[in-house]
Specification:
single chain; 252 residues; 7 strands; alpha+beta
Length: 252
């Protein structure tokens, strides 16, 4: 079945499931996944507290649209379900969807370059090129890692995302978390943050001075990225087309 075909299953939120499943599959192709860790979630319906998320212990390369769990951030019995999510996924994503309704889609990975950045004493990403400027004044650094993202740690992280302008959190000593209004917008940011982090780290490796953009240019560029018509949607559309051409079963 392709992403554009009529779904054979009567499953709620099917288009959203297909988009999210495609993002898992492409994250593997970019080598931004880690074992059976890391999680993507997407709020569905009104209120933002019911959300889709990957099942516990499933490799990103095998996730299908029909596999995604539908959870309620306000349900205290979630971890008693026979298909209970990973406890850190419930802690981090459940808390964010409960406390930050503007964070409709949440993607968290331990990708190499973002995690290298998160391991530096100064984990800020300066605007040194067009890609890194996307995150200018829109990124927060968590400097107080306190262990795995169970509910206490997750509550602290959610506070850092309370400003709707913040799209990205560099989780110090941990990884990166990106939020957005749609799967396409969030995955596009995740992709570009890893690219920007790699450029910055390679620039540091030269030992040469950095050419940092002036504040007004960096902010102007960030706003231009936000207003770029249809870019994120076109990006995800093409990734799904590539998966479909390969015969991938992500949309099943």
């Amino acid at each position: 079945m392709t992403a554009t075909a009529t779904p054979l299953r009567n499953i709620a939120h099917w288009p959203e499931r297909v988009d999210l499943a495609a993002s898992f599959r492409w994250t593997v192709k970019l080598d931004m996944h880690e074992a059976v860790a890391n999680h993507f979630s997407l709020a569905v319906g009104n209120g933002g507290k019911r959300f889709l998320i990957n099942p516990n212990g499933r490799h990103f390369a095998r996730i299908r649209a029909s596999d995604l769990l539908l959870l309620d951030a306000d349900d205290p019995t979630t971890m008693d379900r026979p298909d209970a999510p990973d406890p850190t996924a419930w802690g981090l994503h459940g808390t964010i969807h409960r406390e930050c309704p503007h964070a409709v889609c949440v993607m968290h990975v331990h990708s190499i370059h973002a995690t290298v950045l998160a391991s530096l004493a100064d984990s800020r990403l300066p605007a040194i090129d067009q890609n890194s400027a996307m995150f200018h004044n829109r990124t927060v650094v968590d400097e107080h890692y306190g262990g795995m993202a169970f509910e206490d740690e997750a509550a602290r992280c959610a506070l850092l995302l309370s400003d709707p302008k913040v799209t990205t959190m560099v989780m110090g000593n941990h990884g990166v978390l990106v939020v957005g209004r749609t799967v396409a917008e969030t995955f596009n940011r995740l992709y570009y943050f890893e690219r920007a982090a790699e450029t910055y780290i390679r620039a540091l490796q030269t030992g040469r001075p950095l050419r940092v953009l002036p504040e007004e240019v960096a902010e102007k560029t960030a706003r231009e990225w936000e207003a770029y018509p249809g870019f994120a949607e076109a990006h995800l559309h093409e990734l799904k087309a590539l998966l479909d051409a390969e015969g991938s079963d992500y949309a099943s």
